[in-house]
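HOLO CASE FILE
Compound: cobalamin
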Amino acid sequence: MTHPPEELKEQISRHEMEELGFALIGVVKSETFRLHPPVVGSFGREAVFPHPDEVFPQCRSVIVVAMKTRDDIYDTILYRERLFAGVYDEIIHHRLYKLCHFVEDLGFGARLGEKISYKRAAVLAGIGHVGKNTLITRTDVGSNIRLGVVLTDADLPADESNDPFAKTVCGSCQRCIEACPAGAVTPYSVDFSVCAIPKLFDASDEQAREWARGLHKHVSTEAVIECNLCQKACPYNQ
Ligand code: B12
Ligand code: SF4
Ligand code: SF4
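Model generated. Tokens follow.
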């Protein structure tokens, strides 16, 4: 069965929105990632996020989706020492697997894009721009969105942004910088070694861990709602 690209994209978009509950969808060609240097640095380590074709060599299109998450409950993480699972991660992965199956049922290859930098994919696919807190922010829905990526060998029409790295959303606002109790946010950068979230899991530094515990809302002894004060402060999220 052959599908004209526009019709195929329309079919996938309708499924994403109506069946899977994603609010935003964008597509970027795999080759567009090669026009920009790879993103270096993940979880405080010197790691390089791969290009999509390094994860899935047949990849032609990268589908970026966003789920609205206005409720703090999405930020809940269940943890035990260094093992942890996030509520929104589970929800979004479940939906992304369903999206992969849908694309496969249409006769194309599909893979989860969890190794790709989501924020890089989102700016390239025109989902939004990076704010000073480094989160993907839109003037209509703010940054209360969670992202997910699916790689496919289907050749889909792109929604690529003309100016993906533009600093257009913040102006002179500094609220996220002022709101961070750890002082981790500087314009367009977050210091991972200072942010409270990783410290919660660092059993080797009991003092830092205790301090971080105070910034997270404890639901039980093994469940917390992660800090998101730099996100909450954003006027676009009010
Ligand atoms: C590691 C990680 C963290 C780390 C490090 C965060 C960081 N700033 O890098 C910590 C623990 C601190 C963290 C915290 C949070 N995180 Co986090 N995190 C991730 C994760 C798993 C990888 C990101 C990473 O390694 N970054 C390293 C840097 C080098 O690369 P990058 O951030 O991906 O992309 C860079 C380039 O794209 C480039 N860039 C692109 N466009 C532009 C434009 C300009 C102007 C500039 C200067 C740069 C630039 O700069 C980007 C930012 O540095 C992603 C999921 C994923 N797979 O991508 C979620 C993710 C980024 N986190 C997310 C969220 C929501 C949070 C929190 C609010 C926690 C919470 N309550 O859930 C806080 C917010 C803190 C903050 N202000 O960033 C969301 C962001 C959604 C959004 N709207 O953007 C993601 C995408 C998860 C998801 N599934 O949606 N996170
Ligand atoms: S998540 Fe909390 S500690 Fe981390 S950068 Fe944002 S406000 Fe600061
Ligand atoms: S709080 Fe202000 S500076 Fe920070 S991301 Fe939102 S608009 Fe930009």
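CASE NOTES: Helices lie at 5-19, 52-55, 87-105, 118-124, 175-179, 196-200, 206-213, 229-232. The chain has two domains: 5-152, 175-216+227-237.
CLOSED: yes
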